[in-house]
Structures are given as structure tokens and as C-alpha cells.
Amino acid sequence: MRLKNHVHEGFSNLLSSKLRSILALLGILVGTASVVAMVLGGELVTNEALKQFKTLGTDLLAVSVNDSSEQGGSGGTLNNLALGSVLNLPKTNSSIVDVAPYAQIYNPAQFNGHELNGSVLGVTENFARIVHLELTSGRFISLLDGYEFFCVIGDKVNAQIKKLTFLDAIGQQIQIGKNIFTIVGVAKPWPENSFVYADIDSTVMIPILTSMSLSKYAAINNIILRLKPDANIEQVQDNIKSYITRQVANKRLFFRSAKELIARMSTQSQIFTIFLGLIGSISLLVGGIGVMNIMLVSVVERRREIGIRLAVGARRSDIWALFLVEAVMLSLIGGTGGVTIGILIAYIMAMFWHWEFTLFLMPPLIGFSVSVAVGIFFGYYPAYKASQLDPIEALRSE
Predict the structure, then answer these.
(1) Which residue from 65, 334, 349, 398 is spatially nearest to 222, judged by alpha carbons?
(2) How far apart are CA 108 and CA 385, in angstroms?
(3) Mapping DSSP to helix (H, G, I), strand (E, B) and coil, where does residue 117 land?
């Protein structure tokens, strides 16, 4: 018999036992939906995490400058990097396009006697350009500000101030330690990024020279550099390390390259996605076992039919193909429904967590392909058992 006849008869047989077919479909549907939802969800999580780095660009290099274990804690500014030395870093390698040092200090900030929940960051004018920080109003810190008491506030700090006053934040004053700073700019919301060791939305940004005058412990411990796209990162790192070592002693440097971080995260995400897929495949395996059980029951119930078919001239391969087609049809229908539900679950997850939803083709294809493979694998044995029945014994069965 031709495939078309097998499909027609198989569909009729599935309809004749609706409840049994639906139960078998549910197993495949739930399993496929689990695989698609987990794998697609893993891809969305990875995409969201990588998007934080890609928004800044892949040509960034971050340097953390810490005291070596032999030196211990720094007691002052005698062994700290000077701003001028850091700004001269582009001279160490032609691949360095821009440089933005920043310093974190821990002096409390207050507005009208109310303490603000946030940190203080000493920055240069290059900082906003490199990390793509935009302003809602006002201006950013300028190198010309020198030691002036001007500041730019993050979006969350601005929200705190709005709760205390209805006036525009520009021109208002913030007390940091014992000094009064005038707000000259308000930053737009900035997506938190682990590449920068600061939540810019919760910071008060002041001129970097001013930050060093506020505390003897203030130091340039972090530097962000923008490189040329074809930069040799290892060579740049060696040049920076050699230069900083000549400027200050007993310092340990830690580098973080955007390209390396993205590559590392991509590798980890692939392992994570495979792990999720394997977990989802367990339920698909259970669904496959359900299909095999249903098909074995069907073989027992249809022994007389099988015997008649064989007696009138049907080949064993026809019997085998008929039952295998039924199992595959169950998997196809369940797989299609499972892929649809899995995509819907991933979409709901993305909407709930405010992620950007992107339909990756690989997870649905994997889920559908595996469901069909499960149908073939678990349908083969019942089909084989049906094709090997003895016609005389089958005709005698009731």
C-alpha cells in the first residue's frame, strides 16, 4: 500500500479511539513544549545578558588597578595613579582610541537634610561618551570643571530628589560630606552592566579631580578604554601593564575585554541551553513511552484485523508501515502543538520580565525534530511486533 493510504487509515484508526489518542498526544505535546520553552527561554536570557555588553560595544577594555597583596591597604595617595598618567594611556598603543578613568568614593550624599541612597563617582567627560550615557537635561562633567563642586545625578537619584521637591533638579544643591555641590545635569536611565563597576542610575557623578580632594583614600582604580575594532587585545594589555607598572609600584592589574566576556558568556549559555534541553527531554521521553504503550495496546486490540490483512495478501512491511505511520502522526500533531505552546510560554516569560522577545528558529526546530524522532523510535517496536504476528494465531484471537 502506498503512503497516502497508510496515512488515511492511520488517521481513521486514531479517530476511532479518541481518548487514547488524546492521552498519547498530551505526552508528546507537554514534552515538546517543555523542550522548546526551556531552550528558547535560555536563548532569551542569554540574549538579554549579552545585549548589555553589545549596547556599549565590543571594542571596550576595562582595567581594574588594585593594591598587591604584599602592599596591603593604601594609606594615602602616594602610590596612586595620577590622572595625567591615565590620560596618557593612548600613547602606549595606537589601538587605544579613548580612555575614561573613574574613582569611587564612599562619602554620604544628602539633599535638604535627607540622605540619598546612592554612591559618588569621580569621572571625566570621556566617561559619558564611552559608556553611552545620555542626559535628560543639563550638561555632563567637563575637564574644565577641574576642582569645581558640580555634579550630574543618575535617574534613580533624580527620582529621590523629586519626592522631596517639585522643583527641577538642575541648579539644586547636594551635600557630599561637608561640601555643597550644584547639580548641572540629570542622566537618562542607564541599563546596569557588569562591565562597569557602578550602578550609574544610583550615582552622583562629580569631577574626578574633585573626588580625589574629598578623601585621601580616593584613587583611580578603574579605567575603561575604547579600542580600534582590529586591536590586538593581548598586545594592548601588555603595553598598559608595562606603562602602569612604571608609574606606580605594587599594583595588580585585572583586565576585562568585552569580546572575551561575550565569548565566555556565549559558551556558558550554550552549556546552559543544552542542560535545559536535556531536562525538557525527560518529559518528552516520558511522552514517547506513552506513545509506545498506546501503540502496544492497539496492536493487542487489533490482532484480528492484522490477521485478516495478512491472510488476504498484505505484506508484513505494510503492517509495519501502518502502525509506524500512526505513531509518527501522533508525534507530528503533538510536536506541532508543543512547539506552539512552547513559543507562547517563552513569549509570556519575556513579557513578564520585560525582555526583548526574539524568535530563534533553532529551539522550535530542535523540539519538533526530537518529537518526530521520539515517535519513530518508540513507534518502531510496536510496529515491528504487529508485523511479526502469525496470521493464524491472530485470526483465532477474540
Answers:
(1) 65
(2) 79
(3) coil
How far is residue 1's CA from residue 4's CA, in Å, rounded to a whole number?
A: 8
Burial class (CB in 10 A: 0-12, 13-18, 19+), 384: middle
Paired sense of beta strands 203-207 and 222-227, if any: unpaired
Transcribe 298-346 into DSSP letters: HHHHTHHHHHHHHHTT--HHHHHHHHHHHHHHHHHHHHHHHHHHHHHHH
- Judge contact between 330 and 293, C-beta under 8 A: no
Closest CA to 61 of 234, 249, 302: 234
CA distance 305 to 4: 20
- The domain limits of the chain are 3-54+264-396, 72-249
pLDDT per residue of the chain (398 residues) written in tens, 0 to 9: 466 776 777 777 777 778 778 888 888 898 899 889 888 988 888 888 777 666 677 788 999 998 875 554 444 445 788 999 999 999 999 999 999 999 998 889 999 989 999 899 999 999 999 988 999 999 999 988 999 999 999 999 999 999 998 889 999 999 998 999 999 999 999 987 777 888 899 999 999 999 998 888 888 999 999 999 888 999 999 999 999 999 888 889 999 887 787 778 778 877 887 887 788 788 788 888 888 888 888 888 888 888 888 888 888 888 888 888 888 888 888 899 999 999 999 999 999 988 888 888 888 988 888 888 888 888 888 888 888 888 777 676 65
CA–CA distance, 195 with 172 (Å, rounded to integer): 31
**How far from the centroid of its chain's Cα atoms is residue 188's Cα?**
23
